[in-house]
User: What shape does this take?
Amino acid sequence: MDETIALRAADLPEDATCLIVDDDQPFRTRLGRAMEKRGFSPILAESVSEATRLIAAAPPAFAVVDLRLEDGDGIEVVNQLHESRPDARAIILTGYGNITTAVAAVKAGAIDYLAKPADADDVLKSLLAGPGEMPEPPENPMSADRVRWEHIQRVYELCNHNVSETARRLGMHRRTLQRILAKRAPI
Assistant: This one.
């Protein structure tokens, strides 16, 4: 953790509760531990319904929310959070970044929109950025190959795992798409 982050973490507000909503249990737990080391009091949830219940009981000051959850999307959580606590600072995490969802996240009140896998220091920078202040760009952004792979996976998912329909929408040969889908995600 660099000195700037350490100084900012020391200047956390008195209420440093941070709701972390992600259906990927290992990622959620890792991020929770990392945020706790940085001075936050993490509250973990795996679904929109669980997050909504936690927000109703005690709205947190901060939130880190995955965009796509099994029972809905993270924008619902951000909306609920801002209804309960207008001063809360929330960011959206997603493996499927696109302009439409980024705009929707900002309209819902998210202060930033980060691509997964997001580093805990990048999350901290975004949560603690001052009003109108842009956080520094991430140290390890996704590679162009990873962004392409994520986009293909997203379209494939939206096409209900139909290879022919996905290939048609992406304008690529079906066999090329099958080879890409058979490979592991690039780093």
In short: The longest strand covers residues 89-94. The chain has nine helices and seven strands.
